[in-house]
Specification:
It contains nine helices and 13 strands. By secondary structure, the chain is α/β, with parallel strands linked by helices. It has a domain of 187 residues: Ribonuclease Z/Hydroxyacylglutathione hydrolase-like (Metallo-beta-lactamase, Chain A). A seven-stranded mixed beta sheet has the order 1-2-3-4-5-6-7. The protein has a six-stranded mixed beta sheet with strand order 8-9-10-11-12-13. Strand 11, helix 6 and strand 12 form a beta-alpha-beta unit. It binds zinc ion (ZN). The site of zinc ion (ZN) has 5 residues, from loops. The site of zinc ion has 5 residues, from loops. Keywords: Hydrolase. InterPro entries: Metallo-B-lactamas, NDM-1-like, RibonucZ/Hydroxyglut_hydro. This is Zn-dependent hydrolase, including glyoxylase. GO terms for molecular function: hydrolase activity.
Length: 282
């Protein structure tokens, strides 16, 4: 189940849930305005977070930033009619494509068969929406092209589109005074594809951008907040596997062997999975 936590003076978040694919949602509380990060996978998800925050005397958000177009980050937006929503232009374009869709089991299954939807999300949507399928796609009020700086009063959020394999529209939110980098799903592989994959060039480009932020806490949406040390380790792993993918021309067994020689131990499940995503993206 979910729990609510606070980091620093101004940042609250709700933990993720894997069965229904609920991501972490964040709330940045300034002295003038409050900004929410991501809208959740349903109105229920959103309401749960807001209710829990109300008990802790955290106000409802004036603004909400969507990290990218995937269902689990945007379906809750219809529960925030009075909040100004912000997303990248590309996120808006992708969300527009969802408006005509029906969310009945049959319609979702048909889209999986056509290759429009993926099985992983279809399953999670059915787990989240057991009682109803009254899903309303609400488009963002404001779109940004590259970067926006939002002053909430004593705390500043930088919203910047960083892209990446997972979703080209991805934005991060950097909470300057707290040194928190809310990553959304940007460091994850591409899911909407025949095979889940990473590409070498996009991964290296994205990591270069992420490393320009002076952060102490990193938040990948479907895990839990991690320290700089843990993030740096992840970065080294991704960069190294990307390098060996290039050297070994995407040949899975050779990459595994080379990477094993490099780390001088048996590989973890996470490393093996990452290597196969790189091999599939080659
Ligand atoms: Zn995603």
């Amino acid at each position: 189940m979910h729990s609510i936590h606070k980091i620093g003076k101004s940042f609250w978040y709700i933990t993720s849930v894997s069965l229904t694919d609920r991501p972490i949602l964040g709330m940045v509380v300034g002295s003038k305005k409050t900004l929410m990060i991501d809208a959740g996978n349903s109105e229920e998800h959103m309401h749960y977070f807001l209710n829990e925050l109300q008990k802790r005397e955290v106000p409802n958000p004036d603004l909400v930033v969507l990290t990218h177009w995937h269902w689990d980050h945007i379906f809750g937006l219809s529960a925030l009619p009075d909040t100004v929503s912000i997303a990248s232009k590309e996120t808006e374009r992708e969300m527009e494509k969802l408006i005509p869709f029906s969310w009945s089991d049959e319609a979702i299954d048909a889209r999986v068969n056509e290759g429009v939807e993926i099985e992983f999300c279809a399953k999670a949507i059915k787990e989240e929406y057991t009682n109803h399928r009254n899903i309303k796609i609400t488009l963002p009020d404001i779109t940004i092209e590259k970067r926006a700086e939002i002053n909430l009063g004593d705390v500043t959020c930088i919203v910047q589109q960083v892209g990446g394999d997972h979703a080209a529209d991805s934005v991060i939110v950097y909470i300057k005074e707290e040194k928190i980098l809310f990553l959304g799903d940007c460091i994850y592989p591409r899911m909407y594809a025949e095979k889940v994959h990473y590409t070498i060039s996009e991964t290296l480009r994205l990591l270069d951008v992420l490393e320009t932020f002076d952060a102490e806490t990193f938040i990948p949406s479907h895990q839990q907040p991690i320290s700089k040390e843990a993030f740096d380790k992840e970065v080294v792993m991704l960069r190294t596997i990307a390098k060996y993918t290039e050297v070994c021309k995407g040949d899975l067994p050779t990459i595994v062997k080379e990477y094993e020689n490099y780390v001088k131990r048996e590989l973890t499940e996470d490393e093996l999975e990452t290597i196969s995503h790189f091999a599939d993206g080659y």
